[in-house]
Amino acid sequence: MSLWRKLQANCHSIVQREHHYLPFIDGLRAIAVLLVFGFHVLFLSERLLGPKVYQGLLGSDHLLVNVFWQGDKGVDLFFVLSGFLIASILVREYQQTQSIKIRRYLTKRLARICPALYGLLLCAALLGLPNSAQAWRNILFINNYSGWDMLFAPWTWSVTVEVQFYLAVLLLLPLLYRWGRIPSSVMLLLLVLHVAYRARLIMGHDVLFQQPFAQVLADKTTRLLWLGDIYIDFFARIGPILVGVLLGCIYRYPPPGWLRFFANSGKRAVGIGGLGVLLALLVLSVPLYDPAGRYFSWVGSLGNGLLLSVHRLSFASAIGLIMVSQLFAPQGRDGLGRMLAARCWVPFARVSYSFYLYHIFALEFVYVHWPKHWGMSPWLNLALAGFLALLLALLMAVISYVLIEKNFIDWARMRSAKALSG
Predict the structure, then answer these.
(1) What is the model's pTM?
(2) Distance CA 136, CA 89 (A)
C-alpha cells in the first residue's frame, strides 16, 4: 500500500467502528476524555484569567467550580475501561488456546502506548518544558514515583500507571492457568487491600484530611504532598483498574443466574444502568472542592479522610453498574445504551489517547495567546477559549493518530496475525 493510501485509510478509520467491538465503550471513552479536558480547562486557567481572577474563581462556591474539579475522574473512567478490556482479552485468549502469549500481549500493548507517547515527549522537549532531564523516567514508565515538582510532562503519569498495570496483571496469570479464570473473590480482596492502602496513605498525613480539601490544594507544601504521594501512586490509583478487571472476568465467566436474571426482564438492565448513572452523578456532585468548608464541617475530619479514600472507587463502581447493564442486557439496547453507542462518539473515542496526550499543549497555546482586553466574564472566557482549545487538541490528536498511533497499531496486529498463522 502506498504512503498516501495508507494515510487515507488511517483517516477513514477515525470514523469507523472496529469489528467485534462493544459499541457503548466508544461513548464511555469519549466521555472520559472530555471530563479530563474540562478539568484542565479550569485547572490551567490562571494564564487565561490572571492570578487574581483565578484565585477568586477557585475561592468561590460556584457549582461549576466543583463540577469542573471532578473532571479528573475521567482518568478513573479510562482505568475502568482499560482493566475491563485487558482482562476480557486475556481470559478470552485462554478460553480459546489454553495459554497466553506474553510476548505477543506485551508487543501489542506497548505498540499501542509507546510511539504516540514518545512523540509527545519529543515535542515537549523541543518546546522546552521543564524537567526534561527527567524524561528517562517517562520512557521507562517510572515517573509516577518521583516528586510532582520533578515530573516532565506531568499529565503523562496516568500513561505510566496504565503500563504498570499491563505488567502487574501478568501476576494474575497463575490463577488463570490454575482455575481457567481469575476468581472474583481474589479481585474483591485486592479491592479491599487497595482501599486500606489508600486510607493509610491519607490518614497518615493529618494535614490532608483535617482541613477542607480546597485548603490542601491552596498550600504548595500540602498540594505537592497530595499530588506526589497519593494522586499519582500506582497502588493508590489501581482501584478503578481492579473494578474493570473484575468486570472483564465476570463478562467472560458470568456468575450462575446472571444471564437468566437479565434475560427475564430488560427492565432490570435499565434499572441497574440508571442506578449507575445516578450514583456517578452523586459522586461527581459531592463538593470535594469546598472553599467555605461547609461540607467539611458536616462530615468532620474522619469523614473527610474516608471520603478521600473511597470517592474514586465509588465512581468506578458506578461506571461498573453502567457497564454491567450494557454487557448483560437482552438484545436491543435501551436508551442509555443507544446514547453511549451513538456514532458521534466514535471519532472522539478513536483519537482519545492522542487527544489526552496533546490537549495540554492546545490549552496552554490558546490561554497564552487569548486576548486579555475583551472584558468578558471569567466563565465566558473559559467557554470560548476552551472550545477553541478543544478544536486545536482534536486537530493535534488526528495528526498524531494518523501519522503515528494507527500505523503502529496495524503493525502490531499484522505481527500478531503472522504469529498465529505461523
Answers:
(1) 0.94
(2) 30
